[in-house]
Amino acid sequence: MENRMVPEERMTAQACSGHLASVEDAIYVIGGKWKLKIIIVLQESGNIRFNELQRKVEGISARVLSNELKDLELNGFVKRVVHAEQTPVVVEYVSTDYSRTLKPVIGALAEWGKTHKIKIKEEMS
C-alpha cells in the first residue's frame, strides 16, 4: 500500500508562518497525553460523572483529570453541570457543541493512526 504525494502549490512564507501558528494553537489546546482521550470519552458517553470518566480514561490520576477538565472547560470543550438540587450534589461533565467540531479532526487522526500502524508493521516484517 503505497501513498504517493501529489505535489501541492508552494505556500508563501507568510502563509506558511500563519499555517504553523494555527497548528501550534490547535496542538496547544488539544495536545498532550489526555485531552483528546477525555474529549472522545465525553463525546461517546454524553453526561458522565468524574469517577466514571476516570475509569474510562485508563491510567489518568484524579488530579490530572481534574486539571485537564478545568483546562478543557476554559477552552469551551467541556461543560460542568452541577445538580445542586440533589443530595449529595451531583456533578457531571458533558462535551459542548464546540467540542463536537473536533469530530472530523479526531476521525482523520484515527484513520491516519490506523494507516500508520499498518505501514510500520509492514516495514518491520
From TrEMBL:
InterPro entries: HTH_HxlR, WH-like_DNA-bd_sf, WH_DNA-bd_sf. It comes from the Bacteria. Keywords: DNA-binding, Transcription, Transcription regulation. The keyword Transcription applies. GO terms for molecular function: DNA binding. Residues 16-121 form the HTH hxlR-type domain. This is HxlR family transcriptional regulator.
